[in-house]
Fold this sequence. Notes:
By secondary structure, the chain is an alpha/beta fold. The protein has helices spanning 2-9, 30-37, 73-90, 103-112, 131-136, 149-154, and strands at residues 21-26, 46-52, 64-66, 94-99, 116-120, 142-145, 158-160.
Amino acid sequence: xxxxxxxxxxxxxxxxxxxMKACLVSSHGGHLYQLWLLREAFKGFEVFYITYxxxxxxxxxxxxxxxxxxRNPWRMIMAFAMMLxxxxxxxxxxxxSTGSEIAVPAxxxxxxxxxxxxxxxxxxxxxxxxxxxxxVYPIADLFLVQSQKLLEKYGSKARYVGSII
Length: 165
C-alpha cells in the first residue's frame, strides 16, 4: 500500500491543483476484495470502481458494471469499447487493477488515452505469473508483485515491496 500511495502522491503523478481520480478495476470476488483492502491508499482521492454484473457487496459501490468476459473474444471486444467510453467520460489520472481478465481492456485503454496504469498481481500468485499479468506487464507503468519469487518470472520492471494486501 505504501508503494501505491507514494507513486500517486509524489512526482509527476500528483497534480497539486486537483484531487487525484483513481479508477479501480477488477473482476468480482477475490480480486475485488483485494482492491477493497487497499482503500486506505486512496484516502482523499476521488475513486470509482468497475467490476462485473452480479457483484453484491455492502462496502463497495461500483459505478460501472460490465458483462463477465471470461474467455469470450466478443465480450473482450465489447469490454474494450465500454472501457474506452467510461475512461473518456471519467478522465481518471490512474487505472489500478488486481485482475482478472477485466484488467486487460482497462489497462490497455488507459495507456492509449495516456492514463497511468498500475497492475497488482494477486496475493494468491506466489510461484507463477497470472495470464492477465503476462498480458499487461509490458504496458503497466507500475507492476507490483506480492511474492519475491515472481520477480524472477517477470523481470526488471516488476517491483516487490512485500505483501501490500
